[in-house]
Design a protein that fits this description.
This protein has about 260 residues and is an alpha/beta fold. It is about 40% helix and about 15% strand. Bound molecules: phosphoenolpyruvate (PEP).
Length: about 260
């Protein structure tokens, strides 16, 4: 279970749109999105492409927070094509994805880069959503625990002190965008490992950190995933592009 004291982390459902939806499509999505985002229900986060950030900030209903999919660790400078945490904040973002597997595996982001991005986000008041997860080869070699703990420990290395104002997504690489979903038992094992490490590092404040599952989440499997121990929400890629499917997933997360 999530915390010895009975305190449980907030439920969060996040949409990662990756490289989909221009500004007009972003406006259309929010006109069609029907989930209730009233207080007391799951917190809803949407990560549009950077060029659609302003459209998302303008069109989102109350209760939906907007984040960027990536930030640079420097505050400013000659880094063509990059976005800093202060620029993201200035454009209306409140959250940042950090260490998504597509950034790690397609763009060569290292654990050290991820650590610097975590520190930059927190330094500028962006809540980071740290993504961790093993490849299929690592899973088959029995290295899930070692990999996710290494990714978590390294990501927190540059923080000035013990901080609990971030989110984690456990996203097995082999389940992202593949239609393969981890079983609730796989998810419980990985989330339990991460929660244990958070307790070692943060004590009771570990119960403030929501741990989301991501990897081919759909309306049909969302409820079963949310029922697994230590699952405090979902990070959704493909299915979040459809306003009705994403709303159904937000509703399913209400079941916890
Ligand atoms: C993701 O992009 O973080 C993700 C989980 O994608 P999908 O839901 O499409 O597997």
């Amino acid at each position: 279970m999530s915390g010895g004291s009975g305190r449980r982390p907030p439920v969060v459902v996040a949409a990662n749109w990756k490289m989909h939806k221009d500004p007009p499509a972003t406006g259309s999505f929010f006109r069609e999105f029907r989930a209730s985002t009233a207080e007391g229900g799951p917190r809803v986060l949407v990560f549009p492409p950077a060029a659609s950030l302003a459209a998302a900030v303008a069109a989102r209903p109350p209760g939906v927070s907007i984040g960027v999919q990536n930030i640079h660790w420097e505050d400013k400078g000659a880094f063509t094509g990059e976005i800093s945490a202060p620029i993201a904040r200035g454009a209306g973002a409140s959250h940042a994805l950090v260490g998504h597997s597509e950034r790690r595996h397609l763009f060569g982001e290292s654990d050290a880069d991820v650590a610097r991005k975590m520190a930059a986000a927190l330094r500028h008041g962006l809540v980071p959503l740290l993504c961790v997860g093993e490849t299929l080869r690592e899973r088959e070699a029995g290295r899930v625990e070692e990999v996710v703990l290494r990714q978590l420990d390294r990501a927190l290395e540059e923080l000035p002190g013990a901080r609990a104002d971030f989110l984690i997504a456990y996203e097995p690489v082999w389940a992202i965008n593949t239609g393969r979903t981890a079983t609730p038992a796989d998810v419980e094992a990985a989330h339990g490992t991460l929660r244990g490490r958070l307790r070692e590092r943060l004590g009771a404040a570990a119960a403030d950190v929501s741990i989301l599952y991501g990897g081919s989440v759909k309306p049909a499997n969302a409820r079963a995933l949310m029922a697994a121990d230590d699952v405090d929400g979902l990070l959704v890629g493909g299915a979040s592009l459809d306003a009705d499917q994403f709303a159904d997933i937000v509703e399913a997360a209400r079941s916890r």
